[in-house]
């Protein structure tokens, strides 16, 4: 593209805004908020799944789960780096997470109660994340779009692994099947809620669409997710816990019962089952790690000085 | 059953379990990645050694990991000790990785072709673990007054358990220079607790196993 | 199965398990005795309620205690939360014992003769637990600046979980005067986590059960 | 007895020395050392058994074990009270335990590795304690003798419970039987060592005998213990791990292999498997309880003042 293109021209031409390009302050702020929230979600998301690493029922599953949680830490790193291209520091973003100024995905405020929840999170939560994130690979901000390409590739790998866990359980013993169904029962509606409030109530959406940060509405993405899950649940032999779920010939899509948006709002506001636990865990890890980070800095300073002096 | 494979497999498995406890609790995000990475390597090594160890009597890696109790585990006591703070974890890793490296090096050049092949893979990984731990021990030992104190406390508390690791002279040759660079005192030798190789463990191991094995044992014969 | 007996049995069992964790760790020897005593009372109550709860389908107290997973437990979330420091433990005991007292009082005057007989015994014990906890909450709340801070933090952190305990007005009438005497602020009502009565617990319970059940489950059908 | 009796007359007449009586300083010091060590042993002894309360395999056993450990705390209390009659404070004795100036029984420096260890401790360790302590019920110092009567009564109850645990295991499944045998294998020699070094090497003994604090020698008590255990082990169907164990017609007692006294000395010196862990646990509990004890004192002071002022 031409070096002299204005922001609006770049957006209109479906090209990428890069860190040094001029951009409206609101665009920058919106992106920082969104990328940071995404990064925070990866970091907080390590907890509910990390909760089952020590108890994974086979060494192979333990390795897969550990690698997955490690990938989440990695995603957090890329995404913080992407946010930093917009002129904020990771330390400030972490502070904003810890003191509640910035959010993370509400889905991680539900507890993981059984091993099957690891499967359900992989299948449903990562599945919903992919539906949300695939369009972001074409987002107008270059560093974010590129980070999302890598993230989405790994997420789809995670989703297959989650599906495989559930498949094994659903086709295993009676107790395993029941565990899988129970997990689906608990994670279905929170997963639907991951797409956010219904379009009618969604703030920020219109402008993000115009800026090509967002490309589909919450309800469009939610529908896409439901349509994708129905067939997969059939193969699993599990029942999606929605009596209102049925194929709508006219719409060419499934009708389904909406999640409880009032509950979503309560969880976003901070009153989900695990909000306090998750943020408290992160604060404690951060505080308990302070002496280590300080030592590393002190060591680096000492030896930088030594090198200069030498 | 190869007792060497079992010892090395159990060391690696218990080390992996302890390292994975750090998940989402490390002092910085990069270290969450590094610890998970090392835990994954240890877990990978455990799977190879335990699979081999179980072949003789038809037991799988999961049979050995999930269906033995602590009296049947053959890991060194060091591996099962609680993580403590980050200094304790890094001292444990330094001491264990140094011992693992020496045993893997010997196996890689040894007569058992299967063990040699496994060791050829794991020795590369363990060199990285050793290096990672050594860097942290040095940074913490030579960092702030607090980190120095914590690092020295960790080294002092764990030192007795290193007598069980075997190959003392070669092991000291790997570890002592790290302590020196870290401005840490090398503790005097004295108390030398042991028993891990005979299945006489600390009181910590049975708790670790209770947690590790709970789901597997609750569903006898199930596939995962 | 009597769901009331199951709820009360599970509350008492999980409370006993948590209180017993203090064994050999209490702030003074007299308190080691007192906490063990209260744990024993709770355990005794649990055995009575669970035995009764299991009669309908021929399950024993041990079947119910050792062979259910956390999704089948019906205790309130408050009981399963970690012990925290001594202030948290005393706040938990105050809140739980107040609720237990109210339920036991009602049962003792209720239509189920068996439950009434059990409750007639347990209500006396629970009055002592309530008194013991109240005395500590007052001493800590009105003790030093540090103990006041810790006690207030404990009350604040646990308050949300008290909404699950039922009988709010009567419960508040027992608890509020204690907080007032302890010079503690009565927290505002707000977040009201629940789910324990439906088997949707916190992530803590499955760890507690893994430990509690490990030996029993490792030896299916064995006598002890 | 006559109020004016001298210390030596009271001892000679097999009567009791009471707190206000004159007594040689060495007698007082010996008693303080012995009673304190005994009290400390009760307190430290809570740890190895307490280790299995959370995992006791039936609710009945859990209750029995919890009650037993509670009894140990109670014994600690009486014994500290008995020591206090000799003019020391419990706080000072606890300090002496925590900083290593006073000892506790070395037996508690071995780990409890399985549920069967709870049985073995009850049968062997409490059994050995009873053999040691029954003669102390006739000890010349009144408060100690009276405390020991109560302690011994409860200990013999504990011993029966331990024996019952082992009996159930030894007559249970194959795995349970193996667990019981394994516990006996590990606890046998440490239990024999509880009677202290062989008479030839025993310090303090002669004077304690003269003062009627001690009434039998270490080796006499050890022999009594072995003779008692052999028949009980037969009923249990367990094998005492000693190839040298056999009936000696001439002596009218069992010959047996002595414990490794060098190991006993190492453990006494501080190098047993759990010395550091046990004392570290106690120090931590003491330190973490400090704010509670301070608060209780502050409250008592405040309200004492308030009462006086009122």
From TrEMBL, chains B, C:
Q: Name one Pfam family in it.
A: PaaA_PaaC
Q: Biological process GO annotation list?
A: phenylacetate catabolic process
The source's domain of life comes to Bacteria
Stored InterPro entries: Aromatic_CoA_ox/epox, Ferritin-like, Ferritin-like_SF, PaaA_PaaC, PaaC
What GO cellular component entries does it have?
cytosol
Database matches in SUPFAM superfamilies: Ferritin-like
**PANTHER family, alphabetized:** 1,2-PHENYLACETYL-COA EPOXIDASE, SUBUNIT C (PTHR30458:SF0), PHENYLACETIC ACID DEGRADATION PROTEIN PAA (PTHR30458)
Name of the protein in question: Phenylacetic acid degradation protein
* Biological source species: Spirilliplanes yamanashiensis
Question: Gene encoding this polypeptide?
Answer: paaC
